[in-house]
């Protein structure tokens, strides 16, 4: 029982963590097996465990803590980071986990943890008293969400998230944009943030910096888009009803 109370201090733990109390791997494994049999510990995946709360009967670790402990370099990103910051009140049952080390997607306690290759080590924060959570800062979360919106949350969700975001640090945004070196990303981000520039505290200089990077390419804002309105500033063909795409119509775009 004493071991259980010690493990409660760690939302997520491994055999190696338990071995610190025994200095014997076999004894550590036996202790975990015993606690699992008693319903006090649950296995998340290979060599990854969490305690079961005696009060609620639910896992002690939440999805954000679990995601942050899957690999030594894992952190929550994209829509899951938006959820962590309280930007969206819609709960997704896919948890997006960026990591330098790959892992197979897995499901635990109703959530599916999905691997995203991490190609950028910048902008990752470890909030104090969070139980070891690692999460992209708000600026990196915005950049990543727009970059991968066709792969993950979709444009409707990304637009809704952007509308709920307040102040942004434009130096951070520009730093992450520069790290990705993606002309299309400058176009998409510039277009989607423009109408929110006052609320976000973004200067005209910020958008001028974005415009200088977009080149001459004309692109559709989203994948599988069949028509729309051409925006000459950002050289994008955008859905006519951007904020109500499910009910809005399209027209042919001449480019």
Give a summary of the structure in a few sentences.
This protein has 255 residues and is α+β, with helices and mostly antiparallel strands.
Task: Explain the overall architecture.
The protein is elongated. Helix 6 (138-147) crosses helix 8 (170-180). The longest helix has 13 residues, at 25-37. Strand 10 (229-231) and strand 11 form a beta hairpin. It has helices at 2-7, 15-19, 25-37, 63-67, 78-84, 138-147, 155-164, 170-180, 183-194, 197-200, 204-211, and strands at 41-45, 48-51, 75-76, 94-99, 106-108, 111-117, 124-125, 135-136, 219-220, 229-231, 236-238. Residues 243-255 have low confidence and may be disordered. It has two domains: 2-51, Arc Repressor Mutant, subunit A (Orthogonal Bundle), CATH 1.10.10; 63-244, no CATH class. It is built from eleven helices and eleven strands. With 255 residues, it is an alpha+beta fold. The strands form four sheets. The protein has a four-stranded mixed β-sheet. The termini are far apart.
Tell me the helix content: 25-40%
Report mean pLDDT, rounded to a whole number.
91
- What strand line-up does the widest sheet have? 3-4-6-5
Q: What does the oligomeric state look like here?
A: single chain
Low-confidence stretches: 243-255
Rg, nearest Å: 22 Å
SS-based class: alpha+beta
DSSP helix count?
Answer: 11
Biggest sheet features:
4 strands, mixed
* Shape assignment: elongated
Beta strand %: 15-25%
Helix-strand pattern? HHHEEHEHEEEEEHHHHHHEEE
How widely separated are the two ends? 70 Å
